[in-house]
Design goal:
CATH topology of chain B: Alpha-Beta Plaits
Number of strands of chain A: 10
Strand order of the largest sheet of chain A: 1-4-3-2-5-6
Number of strands of chain B: 5
Number of domains of chain A: 2
Shape of chain B: globular
CATH architecture of the largest domain in chain A: 2-Layer Sandwich
Largest interface: A-B, 24 and 15 residues
Strand content of chain B: 25-35%
Helix content of chain A: 25-40%
CATH superfamily of the largest domain in chain A: ATPase, nucleotide binding domain
Structural class of chain B: alpha+beta
Shape of chain A: globular
CATH class of the largest domain in chain A: Alpha Beta
Number of domains of chain B: 1
CATH class of chain B: Alpha Beta
Helix content of chain B: 10-25%
Largest sheet of chain B: 3 strands, antiparallel
Oligomer: heterodimer
Number of helices of chain A: 8
Distance between the termini of chain A: 57 Å
Distance between the termini of chain B: 20 Å
Order of helices and strands of chain A: EEEEHEEHEEEHHHHEHH
């Protein structure tokens, strides 16, 4: 089998400086998405450890695997975590979670911590859907819109293109700028039709970079029309896997006319961070 | 909060918006809708506050253009049944 170009790097991380044994509240959030799963562990509201991996075909198993991997080498066990919140498509299938919360609320809450309280518009470009969320300074949702009816503007769509063009998905963004001039976006927003269109362009002799540029700008435009419906209020931020693809992000920022905020946190863990923050709030509420 | 349920496709925008600040979860819209499009659910968007709100059911979210079609005014009807039933005026349709 040749290289799997769609495959992105899975990883885990921990903050070595935190002594979790001294923490008062240990909570966790598990985001079981359609394409990727994340587990975030927080000690007193601070990010302690996380993992990010592909979701398998078995949701309960993915949740457990993500959690085990986040805890790997930390000495912490699942029973040390006082409250776990599940979120994402597979949220009802997190066997060790005390509560399931919609990913819309979690992204708003997580985005509030990751990008600061000034963020008002969060665009989550997930594996299989795309959500535009407005939130207030406390990270409460004020307006939202979701597109989960088609794969246009999603991570999975990008994976399909990476595979078609034999370009590792993490290099798509950079490569899409290696063009003399920006081509017209592919006219189909549907991933299946866009793929046929791209194949035709390749056969006409277009270089890969130009095809990718045409696809990235089509995706940016498609997502922009979704954002337009609820409007873009300042500050603007993007979460999810596509937030790491500069080819889409920079073209989108041109359409929106606003630079998205950047964060020191991984954009893919926004939902799980929000879930862990809700877990903390719910735990504190129950202790009162 | 404004919760938008529905989608946008090649033929247009099909969204039902429920203003959760206005919706009191009374359920009048549920009995008014002949197609069972709406339901009363726990307010998941504000997990710390909770409460009950109306929402478009999962089953209809991706096909409301068709689910709502029988009610769309083609004759002398003034308002959609769900909208007239809603006293706090929490429901709007985009099309």
């Amino acid at each position: 089998m040749s290289q799997e170009y769609w495959r992105w790097k899975e990883y885990n991380w921990r903050d070595e400086k935190i002594d979790w044994k001294a923490a008062n509240t240990i909570t966790a959030g598990v985001d079981v998405g359609s394409v990727s799963s994340q587990a975030v562990v927080m000690t007193d509201g601070k990010l302690f450890a996380y993992s990010n991996m592909r979701t398998g075909s078995d949701s309960p198993d993915s949740a457990r695997k993500a959690m085990d991997w986040a805890l790997e080498g930390t000495g912490m066990k699942l029973e040390h975590i006082k409250y776990v919140v599940g979120t994402g498509y597979g949220r009802v299938n997190v066997p060790f979670a005390q509560k399931a919360i919609t990913e819309i609320a979690c992204h708003a809450r997580g985005g509030n911590m990751m990008y600061g309280p000034t963020v008002r518009t969060i665009l989550d470009m997930g594996g299989q859907d795309c959500k535009a969320i407005h939130c207030d300074e406390r990270g409460k949702v004020t307006n939202f819109l979701m597109n989960d009816k088609c794969a246009a503007g999603t991570g999975r769509g990008m994976e399909v293109f990476a595979d078609l063009l034999a370009v590792p998905v993490e290099e798509v963004g950079e490569l899409s700028f290696e063009v003399d001039e920006e081509p017209e976006p592919v006219s189909s927003t549907c991933v299946v039709f866009a793929k046929s269109e791209a194949t035709a362009l390749l056969r006409q002799g277009w270089p890969k970079s130009k095809v990718l540029a045409a696809y990235c700008s089509a995706m940016a435009h498609r997502v922009y029309t979704l954002l337009e419906r609820i409007g873009v209020e300042k500050d603007f931020a993007i979460t999810g896997g596509i937030a790491k693809n500069v080819g889409v992000v920079r073209r989108l920022e041109k359409e929106v006319g606003m630079k998205p905020l950047t964060s020191k946190y991984d954009t893919q863990i926004a939902g799980a961070i929000g879930a862990a923050l809700f877990a903390k709030a719910l735990l504190e509420k129950s202790r009162k | 909060m404004l919760a938008n349920y529905g989608y946008k496709d090649g033929s247009g925008d099909y969204f039902i918006t429920i203003d959760t600040g206005k919706c009191d979860g009374c359920g009048d819209c549920i009995s008014a809708c002949p197609n069972g499009v709406l339901e009363i659910v726990e307010n998941e968007f504000d997990p710390l506050e909770g409460g009950q709100i109306a929402a478009v059911s999962e089953e209809h979210r991706k096909k409301i253009k068709y689910s709502c079609a029988p009610c769309k005014p083609t004759s002398g009807r003034e308002k959609l049944p769900c909208i007239s039933a809603c006293e706090p005026n929490a429901i709007t349709h985009s099309w």
